[in-house]
Amino acid sequence: MPPSPLIPHSRPTLGEEEARAAADAVRSGQIAQGPRVAAFEEAVARYAGRAGGAAVSSGTAALQLALLAMEVRPGDAVVVPSYNCPALVHAVRHLGARPRLCDVDPVTGNPTPETVGAAAEGARAVVVTHLFGAPAEAADIAALGVPAVEDLAQALGAARPEGPAGRSGLLSICSFYATKPLAAGEGGMVLGDKGALLGRVRDARAYDERDNLAPRWNYKLTDLQAAVGLVQLSRYEGFIARRRAIAARYAEGLAGTPLGLPQEPAGGRHIFHRYVVRLPEDRARQPGAGAVEEAARALEAKGITARRPVHLPLHRLLGETGFPGAEEAWARHLSLPIYPSLTEEEIERIMDAVCSLCRGWGHP
User: How far is Cα 276 from Cα 292, in angstroms, rounded to an integer?
Assistant: First the structure.
């Protein structure tokens, strides 16, 4: 009997509707930024509960231009959570500003009011990330008084009891990269309620037909990407419902293991962009190769692709120390496949493989 195919860690949920929308854009002759981009901006802003949006070429570009619109200047300090991808540091540095790292909650990987507050003195802005689809305490962080931009790249549609993620910051940003919950291949968007801020983003995303040489970039989204994005958005609540249903299956099937399972905030909504489990503390402290890598290799041998959700904490890349929450998250977090197109057979295979892994550790 041939071996079962490897289950990938990520898989975009694309179908005939997206294909037709892209083909229609091609047939229209308008494939650069045009009316579909404008429609996508309006639709995403409405979904996110913001007054407007400005589409750009990537999530990194969205963060850079959001900070620019918030008047971050060369030399300014911007608070960035250490447990995240390097794109945050690059966006800050593109403006000549200085990333100032803060620690995170070791369970969720999100910044907290306490960790941000410890780094916020004199900062010009703070980036509030909502990792893996779990909403951070953005309202309490914004209450610290430092202008905040919320990073919804992994959490568009998530919510806390006080309201949707992305509503507490001065601006919020999205990413539409292929592995994100709403996928258009590439792309990003800045969302907000103040027309002047969004106007600065729109001015800076293109440099043609301008009367001065203020810093600008070619950061436009195309109508091809927007066409796909519009279809994805029309299906998005169904995607979230499917992710949440799979997460519920995992929670039930893995309840007897020693793994720490992701929790939904009381009265809130986790959209489960990633299903990130925490390895037992005794496994994380084993000498030798990293426990996360060992677990991932063991699952791959069973046909399951699992990964570290963050390659390296930013403080390691910057040669800094003193981030125990980020260190613990990095040592214990393992991301399992979760996406709408997972089949029932694949879900069962994943749970069986993870339970088998735990039994191999001597756990029932």
Answer: 11
User: Is 56 within 8 Å of 188 (Cβ atoms)?
Assistant: yes
- State both tokens at 272: 């489960």
Task: Read off the amino acid at residue 56.
Answer: V
First to last CA, the chain: 29
Alpha carbons 86 and 65: distance in angstroms, whole number: 16
What does the CA dihedral 224, 225, 227, 230 come to, rounded to 10 degrees? -170
Start-end of CATH 3.90.1150.10 domains in the chain = 236-360
Q: Which residues contact 34 (CB under 8 A, 6 or more apart)?
A: 223
The gap from C-alpha 281 to its chain's centroid, in whole angstroms, comes to: 26
Q: 236-360 has which fold?
A: Aspartate Aminotransferase, domain 1 (3.90.1150)
Mean pLDDT, all residues of the chain? 96
Looking at the chain, which residues constitute the CATH 3.40.640.10 domain(s)? 16-232
* Contact yes or no for 236/22 (Cβ under 8 A): no
| CA contacts within 13 A on the Cβ side of 59 | 29
Please give the class, per CATH, of domain 16-232.
alpha beta
What tens digit of pLDDT does each residue of 308-350 get? 999 999 999 999 999 999 999 999 999 999 999 999 999 999 9
Q: What confidence score (pLDDT) does residue 362 get?
A: 79
Residue 65, pLDDT score: 99
- Which sequence positions are flagged as catalytic? 180
Closest CA relative to residue 341, chosen from 6, 4, 14: 14
- Helix boundaries (H) for 170-271: 195-204, 223-253
Alpha carbon dihedral 135, 136, 138, 144, in 10-degree steps, equals: 170
For the stretch 200-252, pLDDT in tens is 999 999 999 899 999 999 999 999 999 999 999 999 999 999 999 999 999 99
Strand (E) or helix (H) holding 38? helix 35-48
pLDDT at 2: 59
CA 338 centroid distance within chain: 14
pLDDT reported for residue 1: 52
Q: 40-85: per-residue pLDDT in tens?
A: 999 999 999 999 999 999 999 999 999 999 999 999 999 999 999 9
Residue 167 is which amino acid?
R
